[in-house]
Amino acid sequence: xxxxxxxxxxxxxxxxxxxxxxxxxxxxxxxxxxxxxxxxxxxxxxxxxxxxxxxxxxxxxxxxxxxxxxxxxxxxxxxxxxxxxxxxxxxxxxxxxxxxxxxxxxxxxxxxxxxxxxxxxxxxxxxxxxxxxxxxxxxxxxxxxxxxxxxxx
Length: 153
What we know:
Blueprint: E1 19-24, H1 28-39, E2 44-50, H2 53-63, E3 67-70, H3 79-89, E4 94-99, H4 104-112, E5 117-120, H5 125-136, H6 144-149
Helix pairs in contact: 2-3
């Protein structure tokens, strides 16, 4: 599975100030891996992270990032509810769901809550990086499998 990055130009590093990113996932190893991959890019800066939806929304509203990478299934407040809170308080943030779930109901709920994109966790790190750049360029990154589920592929 890879994110559909048909336009290779979407993966070229951005110029200017680094894009600020918050990572929200209940698994520390996932957060650490994403931070390492993103911080290695010259155009990204991870400005915060959180292990659950409540603290994820708090961090995002405090840090005002360009992008939030958000898991769906977390203890307490899930990623869909957290996304709704973030989008209500900081609509400039592009929240990308980064999750293992390809259930069409969850996809629709996440997009309905204001998620800008939906990327499956089995994507390789390069595809996640390209998905973030794609979002920052105003293109909604959706994993190919999700596009098919929604009837667009």
